[in-house]
Amino acid sequence: MSSTEVVDGGGEDPGSLRKPERLGESREALAAARGAEAAAAGPRRILGIAIPTLGVLVAEPIYLLFDMAVVGRLGALALAGLAVGGLILAQVSSQLTFLSYGTTARAARRHGAGDERGAVIEGVQASWIAVGVGFAIVLLVQVFAGPVTRAIAGGDDIASAAESWVRIALFGVPLILLSMAGNGWMRGVQQTRRPLLYVLAGLVISGILCPTLVHGLLGAPRMGLEGSAVANLVGQLISGGLFVSALWRAKVPLAPHIQIMKAQLVLGRDLIVRSLAFQASFVSAAAVASRFGAASVAAHQLVLQIWNFLALTLDSLAIAAQTLVGAALGAGNARGAQGLARRITAWSTVFSVFLAAVFAAGYSVIPRLFTTDPSVLDRTHVVWWYFVAMIPVAGVVFALDGVLLGAGDAAFLRNATLGSALIGFLPLIWLSLAYDWGIGGIWTGLVAFMLLRLFAVSWRALSGRWAQVGAEVPGRMS
After folding, report:
1. Biased-composition ranges for Basic and acidic residues (predicted)?
2. Which side of the chain, N or C, has fewer Cβ within a 10 Å radius?
């Protein structure tokens, strides 16, 4: 089957989806051209990947804020039920981000090697994993939904509201995972605008249905909190369906391929362990912050949410690095991939220094946009300079994370994250509780976590051992 039958570029990213048969090129010549093209990517090309990717990353958090505003009008009980239910849904789906990041790494290498058909087949196999794991999660959590919501909620009324929301919203898990897989392979072949449109299509429909079903507008039944879950489910059905239709139109074999799925799961295992290390660290931080009182935990969460938003912003550049580095290595251009890594890391660092300067200047103003409580503001100012100091460090760390993910160096990233958490973050969190250091101690732990990661990924990047070429992601790296 020719590559002209494999990918519909949709008119985007000129040059990234060239057809060898149409241009009279061999796959080797196409790979060489793509390797050189990726390695020479300038600001326009990188931003062409990063900006739509940022749209995908922030669209869901923005919708969740809207959902909370709609449900909040039902009262505190409904809002608490949504908070608990949303936490459960997020936890059971967010651990499988390898369907996005791992698939990008594998598809980008095949794209760089001129194997467009193989790149899309990576998306097909990731989608099979999404469906299988997604339905297993639905079955498991439906069985234990009652005990889980009661354990988290702590009150029967909140647990009952959360359980009714969760039981409906859970059916969207396979669709969420299908969207992750779709984002993964499309980023790998450097199509970034279509995923943004697919995600926005689902969220716009959810945004229309949410107030309509929750409050019974326009003659619709007033479903209350359950209406929010139905609106979420319909939106996920639309986005997931659009990603599946893109695979169908690509005209590649849609049958499961066990060997490819096994290779994806090996990469996924390392990324899941890494994700669990993050979860354990931040859950511990929240638990310890809560021991220091309401003002401390509120300030911790406020600054942490700003940090998370900045992380998403910097992640968009990291994903551009992942996509382009993977393509360069797939094309056999290790030197070009290393140059690209240095260039994107430098740009990410400059951008992060600018962001740090903005937040340093906003020391007094920015926290007041979120709260006017004097005690919360006092605690916020305690951790603000820790937060500002970490931003330039994050600019380097996140960019190099993207480089190493693009190279498929997930095992190293797993070990670096686990080591940084066990040596730096977790000990300082719990020592803060033991010695009553307050949230300043918690954020000292976060600074140590970031500095240890900075040392690890910088050493790895400078070693050059990650730059292993070929269409296949290396199984293990030494």
Report:
1. 15-24
2. C
Q: Which amino acid is at 120?
A: V
Q: Considering the domain boundaries, does residue 409 fall inside one?
A: yes
Residue 4 lies in a domain: yes
Q: Tell me how many domains the chain contains.
A: 2
Give the tens place of pLDDT for each residue, 331-354: 888 888 899 899 999 999 999 999
Q: Do 310 and 445 reside in the same domain of the chain?
A: yes
DSSP states along 251-289:
T---S--HHHHHHHHHHHHHHHHHHHHHHHHHHHHHHHH
User: Distance (Å, rounded) from C-alpha 446 to C-alpha 386?
Assistant: 9
Residue 404, token pair as written in the block: 């190493």
Residue 310's domain comprises 270-478
**What's the CA gap between 241 and 175, in Å, rounded?**
8
H-type alpha helices, 292-373:
294-330, 334-361
Q: Are residues 274 and 201 in the same domain?
A: no
Quick check: helix, strand or coil at residue 74?
A: coil
**Lowest mean per-residue pLDDT among 29-33, 202-206, 369-373:** 29-33
**Does residue 264 lie in a domain region?**
no
Write b or e for each residue in 118-150: b if 16 or more Cβ atoms lie within 10 A of its Cβ, otherwise e: bbbbbbbbbbbbbbebbeebbeebeeebeebbb
Residues 350 and 226 reside in one and the same domain:
no
User: What's the predicted TM-score (pTM) here?
Assistant: 0.80
